[in-house]
Amino acid sequence: MCFASFGVIFGSMRQYFRLVEERCGLPASQMWVLQEVCRTEGIGMYDIALRMGIHQSTASLLVDKLVSAGMLAKLRQDDDQRRVRLRLEPAGQTASIFRDRPKAPFRRLYQPCRKSSLKH
Predict the structure, then answer these.
(1) Which residues contact 61 (CB under 8 A, 6 or more apart)?
(2) Cβ neighbours of residue 76 under 8 Å, at least 6 residues apart?
(3) d(CA 44, CA 34)
(4) What's the pLDDT at 99?
(5) What tens-digit pLDDT sequence spans the chain (120 residues)?
(6) What are the start-end ranges of the H helices in the chain?
(7) Which of 3, 52, 108, 119 is the most buried if burial means most Cβ atoms within 10 Å?
(8) pLDDT of the residue at 114
C-alpha cells in the first residue's frame, strides 16, 4: 500500500515538473535556482545547494547553465575571490517564469523579483 502511494506522489511530481518546463521553457531545477536568487539577492552557491537539498557541485552545474544562458551573473567579492554571489541578469528577470503570472496554487513560485543593488 505504501509503495502504491509513493508511485502516485512520484507520478504527480513528474507531471508537475513536466508542466513547469513546458510553461517556462526551463527545467524546474533551473527555475528553482532563479527563484532562490530572486528571493535572496546575492545568495551564494552554498546556500543555493542547502535550500535545494543538493550537493554544491550539482548547484554549480545548474548555475553555470543559467550563467551561460545570460540569466545569472556570478559576482566575486574583492576580499575573498573564492566566494561567489549570484545576481539575476535582465534575461533572468524577464524570463517567461517571471512574465506570466499563474493562477493559485503556483503563484508563490512566480513572485516578481526585486531589483538587485549589487554592483558588477
Answers:
(1) none
(2) 83, 84, 85
(3) 12
(4) 46
(5) 576 777 788 788 788 778 777 777 788 889 889 989 988 989 999 999 999 999 999 999 999 999 999 999 999 877 777 788 999 998 887 664 554 454 444 455 555 444 444 444
(6) 2-24, 28-39, 45-52, 56-68, 90-93, 96-99
(7) 52
(8) 45
88, 114 Cβ separation under 8 angstroms: no
31 φ/ψ angles, rounded to the nearest 5 degrees: -60, -40
Angle between helices 45-52 and 28-39 (to 10 degrees): 120
Q: Angle formed by the axes of helices 28-39 and 56-68, to 10°?
A: 90
C-alpha cell at 99: 512574465
- The residue type at 52: M
Global confidence as pTM: 0.68
Which grid cell is 64?
553555470
